[in-house]
Amino acid sequence: MLWNWSTVDSCFIAKSWHVTSNGMFAGCCIGVILLVMSLEFLRRLGKEYDRLILRQHTRQQASILSTNSMANSETGTGTSPATAGKDVAVACTPQSQSNRSAMTPFRPNIFQQMIRATLHMVSFTVAYFVMLLAMYYNGYIIISIIIGAWLGSFVFSWESVNVGGPKEEITVCCG
Predict the structure, then answer these.
(1) Which of 12, 97, 120, 122 has the lowest CB atom count within 10 Å?
(2) CB neighbours (10 Å) of residue 12?
(3) Where are the beta strands (DSSP E) in the chain?
(4) What's the whole-model pTM score?
Protein backbone atom coordinates (compact mmCIF):
# COMPACT_ATOMS: atom_id res chain seq x y z
CA MET A 1 0.00 0.00 0.00
CA LEU A 2 1.17 3.50 -0.81
CA TRP A 3 0.36 6.83 0.77
CA ASN A 4 -2.53 8.40 -1.14
CA TRP A 5 -4.98 11.27 -1.15
CA SER A 6 -7.65 9.50 -3.21
CA THR A 7 -11.25 10.42 -2.47
CA VAL A 8 -13.49 8.99 -5.17
CA ASP A 9 -13.15 5.31 -6.07
CA SER A 10 -11.56 4.44 -2.71
CA CYS A 11 -12.45 1.18 -1.03
CA PHE A 12 -12.15 0.55 2.72
CA ILE A 13 -12.46 -2.68 4.75
CA ALA A 14 -15.00 -4.40 2.42
CA LYS A 15 -16.42 -4.22 -1.12
CA SER A 16 -19.58 -2.64 0.24
CA TRP A 17 -17.54 0.35 1.50
CA HIS A 18 -16.69 1.59 -1.98
CA VAL A 19 -16.65 5.39 -2.21
CA THR A 20 -18.32 6.64 -5.40
CA SER A 21 -18.67 10.39 -4.74
CA ASN A 22 -17.07 13.27 -2.85
CA GLY A 23 -20.10 13.48 -0.56
CA MET A 24 -19.80 9.81 0.27
CA PHE A 25 -16.10 10.30 1.08
CA ALA A 26 -16.92 13.27 3.34
CA GLY A 27 -19.44 11.04 5.12
CA CYS A 28 -16.73 8.40 5.52
CA CYS A 29 -14.40 10.94 7.11
CA ILE A 30 -17.12 12.08 9.52
CA GLY A 31 -17.88 8.42 10.31
CA VAL A 32 -14.20 7.76 11.05
CA ILE A 33 -14.10 10.78 13.38
CA LEU A 34 -17.17 9.46 15.21
CA LEU A 35 -15.69 5.94 15.35
CA VAL A 36 -12.51 7.19 17.02
CA MET A 37 -14.56 9.35 19.39
CA SER A 38 -16.58 6.25 20.32
CA LEU A 39 -13.30 4.51 21.15
CA GLU A 40 -12.43 7.30 23.58
CA PHE A 41 -15.94 7.05 25.03
CA LEU A 42 -15.52 3.30 25.58
CA ARG A 43 -12.19 3.87 27.32
CA ARG A 44 -13.78 6.44 29.62
CA LEU A 45 -16.74 4.15 30.24
CA GLY A 46 -14.36 1.40 31.34
CA LYS A 47 -12.57 3.74 33.76
CA GLU A 48 -15.86 5.03 35.16
CA TYR A 49 -17.19 1.50 35.65
CA ASP A 50 -14.00 0.52 37.50
CA ARG A 51 -14.40 3.60 39.71
CA LEU A 52 -18.04 2.73 40.36
CA ILE A 53 -17.37 -0.82 41.52
CA LEU A 54 -14.41 0.37 43.60
CA ARG A 55 -16.61 3.02 45.27
CA GLN A 56 -19.22 0.35 46.00
CA HIS A 57 -16.54 -1.87 47.55
CA THR A 58 -15.13 1.03 49.60
CA ARG A 59 -18.60 1.93 50.91
CA GLN A 60 -19.29 -1.69 51.78
CA GLN A 61 -15.98 -2.03 53.63
CA ALA A 62 -16.51 1.28 55.44
CA SER A 63 -19.93 0.08 56.52
CA ILE A 64 -18.45 -3.18 57.82
CA LEU A 65 -15.71 -1.32 59.71
CA SER A 66 -18.27 1.07 61.14
CA THR A 67 -20.61 -1.67 62.35
CA ASN A 68 -17.68 -3.64 63.78
CA SER A 69 -16.45 -0.64 65.75
CA MET A 70 -19.99 0.08 67.00
CA ALA A 71 -20.41 -3.55 68.04
CA ASN A 72 -17.08 -3.41 69.87
CA SER A 73 -18.03 -0.19 71.65
CA GLU A 74 -21.44 -1.61 72.68
CA THR A 75 -19.87 -4.75 74.15
CA GLY A 76 -17.04 -2.73 75.65
CA THR A 77 -14.30 -4.75 74.00
CA GLY A 78 -11.33 -3.32 72.26
CA THR A 79 -12.07 0.39 72.49
CA SER A 80 -12.13 2.99 75.18
CA PRO A 81 -14.56 5.90 75.11
CA ALA A 82 -11.69 8.12 73.95
CA THR A 83 -10.92 5.96 70.91
CA ALA A 84 -14.40 4.68 70.01
CA GLY A 85 -15.20 7.59 67.68
CA LYS A 86 -11.87 7.39 65.87
CA ASP A 87 -12.68 4.02 64.26
CA VAL A 88 -15.94 5.38 62.88
CA ALA A 89 -14.19 8.51 61.60
CA VAL A 90 -11.54 6.41 59.91
CA ALA A 91 -14.22 4.18 58.33
CA CYS A 92 -16.01 7.20 56.92
CA THR A 93 -12.94 8.69 55.24
CA PRO A 94 -11.88 6.36 52.42
CA GLN A 95 -8.88 8.54 51.56
CA SER A 96 -7.16 8.06 54.92
CA GLN A 97 -4.08 5.89 55.13
CA SER A 98 -5.32 3.82 58.06
CA ASN A 99 -8.53 2.98 56.22
CA ARG A 100 -6.61 1.77 53.17
CA SER A 101 -4.64 -0.65 55.32
CA ALA A 102 -7.87 -1.92 56.94
CA MET A 103 -9.58 -2.48 53.59
CA THR A 104 -9.62 -5.98 52.17
CA PRO A 105 -8.20 -6.35 48.66
CA PHE A 106 -10.80 -5.81 45.96
CA ARG A 107 -11.57 -8.37 43.29
CA PRO A 108 -14.65 -7.90 41.10
CA ASN A 109 -17.28 -10.62 41.19
CA ILE A 110 -17.95 -12.66 38.06
CA PHE A 111 -20.76 -10.41 36.82
CA GLN A 112 -18.66 -7.25 37.28
CA GLN A 113 -15.72 -8.91 35.54
CA MET A 114 -17.95 -9.96 32.63
CA ILE A 115 -19.00 -6.33 32.18
CA ARG A 116 -15.37 -5.18 32.38
CA ALA A 117 -14.28 -7.83 29.86
CA THR A 118 -17.12 -6.92 27.50
CA LEU A 119 -16.16 -3.23 27.59
CA HIS A 120 -12.55 -4.17 26.91
CA MET A 121 -13.53 -6.46 24.03
CA VAL A 122 -15.68 -3.80 22.37
CA SER A 123 -13.00 -1.10 22.73
CA PHE A 124 -10.35 -3.53 21.46
CA THR A 125 -12.50 -4.30 18.40
CA VAL A 126 -13.08 -0.63 17.65
CA ALA A 127 -9.35 0.05 18.06
CA TYR A 128 -8.55 -2.68 15.52
CA PHE A 129 -11.00 -1.21 13.00
CA VAL A 130 -9.33 2.18 13.45
CA MET A 131 -5.95 0.53 12.88
CA LEU A 132 -7.24 -1.19 9.73
CA LEU A 133 -8.51 2.16 8.43
CA ALA A 134 -5.13 3.76 9.11
CA MET A 135 -3.42 0.97 7.19
CA TYR A 136 -5.05 2.18 3.96
CA TYR A 137 -2.56 5.08 4.15
CA ASN A 138 -5.18 7.54 2.95
CA GLY A 139 -4.18 11.00 4.17
CA TYR A 140 -7.75 12.18 4.69
CA ILE A 141 -8.67 9.09 6.71
CA ILE A 142 -5.56 9.43 8.88
CA ILE A 143 -6.32 13.12 9.46
CA SER A 144 -9.89 12.09 10.39
CA ILE A 145 -8.48 9.56 12.88
CA ILE A 146 -6.29 12.27 14.44
CA ILE A 147 -9.20 14.73 14.64
CA GLY A 148 -11.41 12.02 16.18
CA ALA A 149 -8.74 11.20 18.76
CA TRP A 150 -8.39 14.87 19.68
CA LEU A 151 -12.14 15.48 19.89
CA GLY A 152 -12.70 12.23 21.80
CA SER A 153 -9.98 13.05 24.28
CA PHE A 154 -11.26 16.59 24.65
CA VAL A 155 -14.82 15.45 25.35
CA PHE A 156 -14.32 12.19 27.26
CA SER A 157 -11.03 12.73 29.12
CA TRP A 158 -12.02 16.02 30.70
CA GLU A 159 -11.88 15.14 34.37
CA SER A 160 -10.24 16.38 37.52
CA VAL A 161 -6.64 15.35 38.06
CA ASN A 162 -5.13 14.61 41.46
CA VAL A 163 -2.54 17.11 42.62
CA GLY A 164 -0.10 14.23 43.07
CA GLY A 165 -0.33 13.55 39.33
CA PRO A 166 -2.11 10.92 37.31
CA LYS A 167 -1.92 7.39 38.73
CA GLU A 168 -2.07 5.73 35.35
CA GLU A 169 -0.01 5.86 32.22
CA ILE A 170 -0.69 8.92 30.07
CA THR A 171 -0.85 6.95 26.83
CA VAL A 172 -2.78 3.72 27.09
CA CYS A 173 -1.81 1.78 24.01
CA CYS A 174 -3.90 -0.75 22.16
CA GLY A 175 -6.98 -0.91 24.36
Answers:
(1) 97
(2) 18
(3) none
(4) 0.71
